[in-house]
Amino acid sequence: MRVALAATLFSARTSCCWTNQTNYLDLEGTLWLEDHLANYPRTVIVISHDRDLLDTSVDQILHLDRGKLTLYKGSYSSFEEQRATREMLDAKHAKRRPTNASGCRRRRPLKAKASKARQAQSA
User: Fold this and answer.
1) CA–CA separation, 33 vs 15, rounded Å?
2) Which of 28, 62, 76, 111 has the greatest number of C-beta atoms within 10 Å?
3) Can you spell out the DSSP letters for 33-56?
């Protein structure tokens, strides 16, 4: 597995996408991969459940949630903190928005203007 990973990393590709990179690696191989990815000069898309790998080897997280992509700068731990903060703020904002009985946000009432009222009455 190490040889296959090394061959991929040392190829002349401009980008690479892997999933579950550490499944078949021992501790030494995993540490080597984390270090190598952290210093890799090209773009690598890492899809992994290994939080330690993500924490040590990535500097941006592209998160897909409800069909919306959000880019977070920093490690995986930083992403978790930023996402929790964003969700907390979104929840606070949602509480402030008034809703009607059907659960939809109410629109602000339209302000009546005297000139518009005269136009409506004359029609």
Assistant:
1) 16
2) 76
3) HHHHHHT-SSEEEEE-S-HHHHHH
- Identify which of 86, 84, 30, 89 has the alpha carbon closest to the alpha carbon of residue 55: 30
82 within 8 A of 72, measured Cβ to Cβ: yes
Phi, psi of 15 (to 5 degrees): -150, 165
At 33, give phi and psi (nearest 5°): -65, -45
Query: Please, which residues bridge with residue 65 across strands?
Result: 68
Please answer whether residues 67 and 74 qualify as being in contact, where contact means their C-beta atoms are separated by less than 8 angstroms.
Answer: no
N-term to C-term CA, the chain:
80
The predicted model scores a pTM of: 0.58
Evaluated on CA atoms 32, 37, 41, 46, the torsion sign reads: positive
Which amino acid is residue 102, in one-letter code? Answer: S
Angle between helices 27-38 and 2-9 (to 10 degrees): 10
Closest CA to 90 of 66, 59, 60: 66
**How does pLDDT run across 8-49, given as a tens digit for each residue?**
666 655 555 556 667 777 888 888 888 888 888 777 788 888
